[in-house]
Structure to design on (368 residues):
């Protein structure tokens, strides 16, 4: 059985050709699936009965299973999806005036082991399939239905996992987000966030250039090596060059640099100046994220004054710098707090014992 949620337009028409169906039939089916959001072939009323029967015997529509949807006091909403084999992933919807952003996951767990990230502490289980990536958007759309307060206008790949480590499955999902026969989002409204996988950045630029965010968190290699082990493979000077290459094709004329502020580690005034010097030749904006603690985390969030001071130095240099408001922390949906529940196949050096228990409790309290 073929899961139709694994297909972008190209894969759809290729598969329909093997069924000896015309390309426009593939487009019609894709529109039912993604524009209307139906899960049932009989609801696809403009398809010939014979085609519907053919689809029933050869295809399925199988999204990740929605386990719970919990809403935060500030209106953001976290979805927990079961993807089998004891793996669960999380997706967060963040409503803001004039837009709604869905933050989706690309892997169950993450192999990069960034020292300050809850997902990284859990270890890596597996890549998500295209159906599981796009399925988060598909499910959230169905969940919200016609709720006009909850329209998804932007998608960010800032949930669990490193999106550029799963490009084979990510690219068809991105294609669907951009396709007018599916979600029809503009390239500027789809943002991939990476810890700095340079080959992946180059491939994304060639195959599907959407807006790019790069997680920096340190302006020198010695500190970044510690915080983000991937830096040992792709150090800062090369990363800056890769950002400049990306800008040649990027839909926005800037890269967003994310910088999590860790008290006493990377939040001094000289750190801010080093950040400016490092990024001098890259057209960029800064997104400052005061550290979000999670059980077992060894870092602390700096005080508001220190956050303000750090940001002010960037602003004074004429840069755009926003401080990310913490949303959804009461439902552990803030940056770096997403942990889902993954079966760790590559245990990191320090894993959080019994992280899953927190989820059992969370589910009891919030499931509805
Ligand atoms: N792997 C991708 C996608 C994760 S996006 C990446 O590294 O960019 C989530 C963002 O939140 C990243 O910038 C990540 O470094 C940051 N982050 C992770 N843990 C955090 C925490 N505990 N507090 C604040 N930000 C965190």
């Amino acid at each position: 059985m073929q899961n139709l949620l694994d297909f972008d337009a190209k894969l759809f028409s290729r598969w329909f050709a093997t069924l000896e169906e015309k390309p426009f039939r593939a487009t019609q089916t894709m529109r039912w699936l993604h524009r209307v959001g139906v899960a049932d072939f009989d609801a696809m009323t403009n398809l010939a009965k014979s085609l519907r029967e053919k689809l029933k015997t050869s295809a399925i529509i199988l999204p990740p299973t929605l386990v719970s949807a919990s809403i935060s006091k500030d209106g953001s909403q976290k979805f927990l999806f079961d993807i089998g084999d004891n793996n669960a992933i999380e997706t967060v919807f963040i409503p803001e005036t004039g837009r709604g952003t869905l933050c989706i996951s690309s892997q169950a767990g993450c192999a990069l082991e960034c020292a300050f990230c809850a997902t990284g502490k859990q270890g890596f289980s597996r890549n998500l399939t295209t159906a599981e990536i796009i399925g988060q958007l598909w499910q959230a759309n169905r969940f919200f239905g016609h709720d006009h307060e909850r329209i998804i206008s932007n998608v960010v790949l800032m949930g669990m996992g490193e999106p550029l480590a799963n490009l084979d499955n990510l690219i068809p999902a991105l294609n669907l987000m951009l396709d007018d026969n599916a979600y029809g989002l503009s390239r500027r409204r789809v943002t991939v966030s990476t810890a700095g996988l340079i080959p992946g950045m180059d491939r994304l630029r060639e195959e599907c250039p959407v807006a790019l965010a790069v997680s920096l968190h340190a302006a020198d290699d010695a500190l970044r090596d510690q915080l983000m082990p991937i830096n040992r493979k792709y150090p800062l000077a090369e990363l800056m060059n890769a950002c400049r290459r990306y800008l040649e094709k990027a839909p926005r004329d800037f890269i967003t640099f994310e910088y999590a502020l860790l008290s006493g580690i990377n939040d001094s005034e000289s750190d801010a100046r080093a950040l400016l010097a490092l990024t001098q030749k890259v057209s960029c904006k800064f997104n400052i994220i005061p550290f979000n603690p999670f059980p077992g985390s060894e870092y602390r969030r700096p005080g508001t004054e220190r956050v303000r001071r750090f940001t002010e130095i960037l602003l004074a240099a004429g840069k755009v710098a926003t401080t990310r408001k913490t949303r959804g922390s009461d439902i552990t949906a803030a940056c770096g707090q997403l942990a889902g529940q993954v079966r760790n196949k590559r245990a990191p050096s320090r894993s959080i014992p019994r992280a899953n228990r927190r989820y059992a409790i969370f589910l009891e309290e919030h499931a509805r």
In short: The radius of gyration is 21 Å. The first strand starts at residue 2 and ends at 3. Residues 114, 116-117, 158, 162, 193-195, 215, 258, 260, 289, 291-292, 335-336 surround S-adenosyl-L-homocysteine (CB under 6 Å). The mean pLDDT is 91.
